[in-house]
Specification:
Helix 1 packs across helix 4. The chain is mostly helical. It starts with a helix and ends with a helix. The protein has a single domain, classed as Tetracycline Repressor, domain 2 (Orthogonal Bundle), CATH 1.10.357.10. This is TetR/AcrR family transcriptional regulator.
């Protein structure tokens, strides 16, 4: 039975969404094509009607989930981003959390095409949040960007380190709490008292 173009496109989008979640939960190497297609509700053989290779799907799924993370970042100020990102909820939500925290380690071992997808997502996130970074009028033009590179690296690193610890580990929570407080305290318009109260 032939599938309409609209249905074929909807099926493809569903596969990309499923892959995006599974890759964030298990890593790129932790998900095979057969498992992925079964999770999406399709047969293994249907995969190559939509994608040339698993690498193609990895890039598309990563671009999709990085775009979703960016859409969330667009709705937040820098403090709101820190509060949401460096949290136990985000740490525990691997499948629906940020692709950078879930897959940057995996992406580092992938071909340049996939790395370029991550670089684009990182750059767009830096631009979005950098435009919202609170700086005074005398700050250098690139001051907000430089601060956001440091904050984004600390946020991603904090979640990655916390996830590397056992789920009930006191260290996992301590990493998040310390980094969260330090990041808030580094914002020029957030006092140390506010940073401590938000822990």
């Amino acid at each position: 039975m032939r599938v309409s173009k609209a249905q074929a496109q909807a099926n493809r989008e569903h596969i990309v969404e499923t892959a995006s979640e599974l890759f964030r939960e298990r890593g790129f190497d932790g998900v095979g094509v057969a498992d992925l297609m079964a999770a999406a509700g399709f047969t293994h053989g249907g995969f190559y009607k939509h994608f040339g290779s698993k690498a193609d799907l990895m890039a598309e799924a990563s671009a999709n989930s990085l775009g979703r993370s960016l859409a969330t970042a667009e709705t937040l100020d820098v403090k709101g981003f820190i509060d949401l990102y460096v949290s136990r909820e985000h740490r525990d939500g691997r499948g629906d959390g940020c692709t950078m925290a879930a897959l940057c380690g995996d992406a580092a071992r992938q071909p340049d095409e996939l790395k370029a997808t991550f670089a684009d997502g990182i750059e767009r996130t830096l631009q979005t949040l950098g435009a919202k970074y609170p700086t005074d009028t005398e700050a250098a033009p690139d001051a907000a960007r430089l601060k956001m590179i440091g904050l984004l690296a600390q946020a991603v690193g904090a979640v990655m380190l916390s996830r590397a610890c056992p789920d009930d580990s006191a260290l996992a929570d301590e990493i998040l709490a310390v980094c969260h407080a330090q990041m808030l305290a580094s914002l020029p318009l957030v006092s140390e008292d506010e940073a401590e109260q938000s822990e």
